[in-house]
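Entry 14. Two folds queued back to back today. First construct below, sequence then structure tokens.
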Amino acid sequence: MTSIRTGRLVIRPFTLDDAAFILRQLNEPSFVRHIADKGVRDLDGARGYLRDGPMASYARHGFGLWCVELGGAGTPIGMCGLIRRDYLPDIDIGYAFLPEYGGSGYAYEAAAAVLGHARHVLGVRRVLAIVNEDNAPSIRLLGKLGFEANGTVAVPGTEREVRLFAVHLGEAAQAQLAPTGAAGA
């Protein structure tokens, strides 16, 4: 499994040691409002989420949500990665950051690196994104990354309909998304 390094960040696979961070991230009001209430209320639940979610995705698909850390300090600040959802025709990008790290460009930096990894390492040509209609910051970020609106999609098991975006990862259009460095993990 690969880790991605950018100018300020390390984007690496989650481990069970990240349970305390995951517990906090999944219970942030902004996460619950814009993504979902995952029902994780303690460290055992957080470890289960990691095992059954990101870590299972690594084993099944070779990708998943990764932990985003500040490069020098190793402080977890969010998550970003690729997700394979049964109800979408292509993989999608997902991200969430702790509120105190918003507005610093970390989400853009991490998402651009993940898209570069998708294109240059995994050979992916198209990535989707889903977002709630009222999540203006996420919609702006997707626009900066080159995503275009592509309709809506119903989320199975809920009564929610979310906006669907897509980006094509062609050679010329996505050259700036090449990862700045990768190291084995």
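Second construct, same run, same settings:
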Amino acid sequence: MIRWGSPEHGGGTTARRAGTRPALGALAGLVGALLGALPVAAAPARYGAPAGCASPVGVHTAGTPWAIELLGPRRVWPLSTGSGVRTAVLGTGVDARNAQFRPGQVEDGRDVLDNSGVATDDCDGRGTFAAGLIAARPHDDTTFAGLAPGVSVLPVRYTQSTTQGNGAVDPDRLAAAIDVAVTARARVIYVVLPATRNTAQLRAATARAIAADIVVVSPATSGPRTQGATSYPTALPGVLAVGAFGPDGAVASTESGDHIGVSAPGRQLLSLSAGANGRLGHSPTVDDPAYAAAYVAGTAALLRSYRPELSAAEVVRRITSTAQRTAVAGHHPQLGWGMVDPYRAVAAEGVEDPPAVAAASAQPVAAAGADRGSDVHPVVLPLASAGLVAALLVGIGTAVTRRGRARGWRPGG
């Protein structure tokens, strides 16, 4: 049986040990119960979003979303909330008027579609959804929160400004968006919508961002039409490429290769909705593996806040080195070095070597002081029980292996 386990490299041990191996039937019941809590409460009033634009379906008041249960940000927040880290969200803009963004948290940003206006509205909605996974602050009236609620968000719009949909991404406009983030001195760049074509402009802009010591995070492609495709800047040197899996453990992204660094939840996700008009407002659950990269970008922001002395390359190495491995050693072509682990990435010691050359170790995680710049509410998301997290990890590893065998790959191959 394949399971997610401890990394085979130097670094701290994790509190999430799979002490038991429940049958997948029992796991399905646990996951089903968790997902059954996902529907949001009915909206008490209309939000007033423009016709054809994204708008909330209500406020999420049920159980903690499964991805948050799995990643456990509450463990990290006493150490870091990402405060002081400007995180650029490159996509369709970010609607700053959702009440789970603190005042001023979403900066004006820039619209590079026509080089006019700011990017603090978002008709399409995907940029706001992505930013919420990273930056939504805890709120008494909802059980949803982002991974790094202390960050500041720099929205840069380069696609889909007026209508919802999946129009092709112009790689040169994406290159211009990356340059905006570099000029604004972002410390993390999250590309929400990568391009399927590579150009000289995109290569050059990505290289400038890497040279400027910025962590660039980009998702792997997904969907039947992208089977076997490569996305950009995801596949470019120095970029932290992110694969995805769902709550059933199945691989959710189709892009594969040595460039995939880590993986994160990418199905059955909910987040903030655009069009909330100053209130709380959440989306329905969506399946889009591109959002897995938001959790990795949030982890990078947590790490850059807590360990500001680390270079971007060192941040990437820590994230890949502390990822939760499967029991089978080696790099997975669609999941990279394993599932991102925000707490280990921030708190573990002795993990600076790349995972391919790091030696096995059982070093403990060193004690660390709290991030006193945090404004996170003291009563936040409930902690996931160790048994549930272990069960989810076991199930993910098993289902990933079964799906992989059906597709003809072998873990570590």
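Quick look at the second one. Residues 136 and 146 are 4 Å apart (CA to CA). Residues 4-407 form a domain with the Rossmann fold fold (CATH 3.40.50.200).
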